[in-house]
Amino acid sequence: MLKLNAKQLRKVKPRRFEYSTPLVFVLDNIQDTYNTGSFFRLADAVGAQKIYLCGNTVTPPNPKIHRASVGLWRWMPWEYHRDLTPLILSLKKEGFEIIVVEQDKNSVDYGTVKAKGPVALVLGHE
Fold it and tell me: Domain 20-103+111-124 sits in which CATH superfamily?
């Protein structure tokens, strides 16, 4: 078994895999760059196809994103969009089911959601 330390991991291109149901992350106005970097790691871990960074979300290259993502921002496909609305409309036209993560009295338990096709998971400022 090959073991790499954190410094080596930042230089090794990770293996990409995807689940049968396409998944993309849409990050809107994420203000903490460490959180943005963490979403790159999470997206890679769950096999997401792409990350869309929107609004005031800081984009790579950024030292804090680099550290938190362990360099994954270099290999995880991502795009920046200033405005969230046209991106959401475009993803809907492509057949994505839009799921917005929010804590509210009307929120639905994520464990009960049954997606029928590709999923765009929208995550906003903490």
Answer: SPOUT methyltransferase, trefoil knot domain (3.40.1280.10)
